[in-house]
Write a structure and sequence with these properties.
About 75% of the residues lie in helices and about 0% in strands. By secondary structure, it is an all-alpha fold. Helix 2 packs parallel to helix 4. It is globular and about 50 Å long.
């Protein structure tokens, strides 16, 4: 009996895009360590800055890689936003630990991420998908750029710029969270009509 080789979609986590995403999650603690170890310089470090850019670039590669190879999957749709949250929130809390960011705006971002994630889980259990919005990816980019400003060694003494960039990222984060909630409310009210 001749069986075809299993596709990446069947293998789930074995797709190249998912391996890249899982790698991003596994490497992210090294970034957090580099930030915390650079405490005397408020978390600014060239090694951390470079690794942060590498992790950010890998985020832009996994989606196109999955689509090009025809391996986009439900596991990838779950893992990619999870990896984004791990990298962004882990980096932000590392920056809080070294005094570079204040805890309150980071807590606001965390609350948004947990709310949207809980909403996704709830609707998934109802058999309803909550598709990713383009604004969600823009939000991740804005968060990443704000964190890049915070970790960049040439900007070690630019706390005002760091705060302004991070608060802008918080604003974008909260607006996109509201968009997800509004989308679900509209879809739910339409379904009931």
């Amino acid at each position: 009996m001749n069986q075809a080789a299993p596709s990446y979609a069947i293998a789930g986590l074995a797709s190249p895009a998912n391996v890249l995403t899982i790698g991003r999650i596994l490497v992210s603690p090294l970034l957090f360590f580099l930030i915390v170890e650079a405490e005397p310089s408020h978390g600014t470090t060239w090694a951390g800055f470079t690794l942060g850019w590498i992790l950010g670039a890998s985020d832009f590669l996994d989606g196109p890689l999955a689509r090009r190879q025809g391996t986009a999957s439900r596991s990838g749709a779950f893992l990619d936003p999870l990896a984004d949250k791990v990298v962004v929130l882990g980096c932000a809390y590392s920056m809080v630990a070294v005094g570079r960011l204040h805890w309150f705006p980071v807590a606001l971002v965390t609350a948004r991420e947990l709310t949207v994630s809980a909403m996704r889980v709830y609707y998934a259990q109802q058999g309803v998908s909550v598709p990713a919005r383009r604004s969600g990816k823009i939000k991740t980019v804005v968060q990443g750029l704000a964190l890049a400003v915070a970790i960049a060694p040439p900007l070690e003494d630019s706390q005002g710029l760091v705060d302004a960039c991070w608060w802008f990222a918080v604003g974008v984060t909260l607006v996109t969270g509201w968009q997800y909630i509004r989308d679900r409310e509209l879809a739910t009210s339409t379904a009931r009509s």
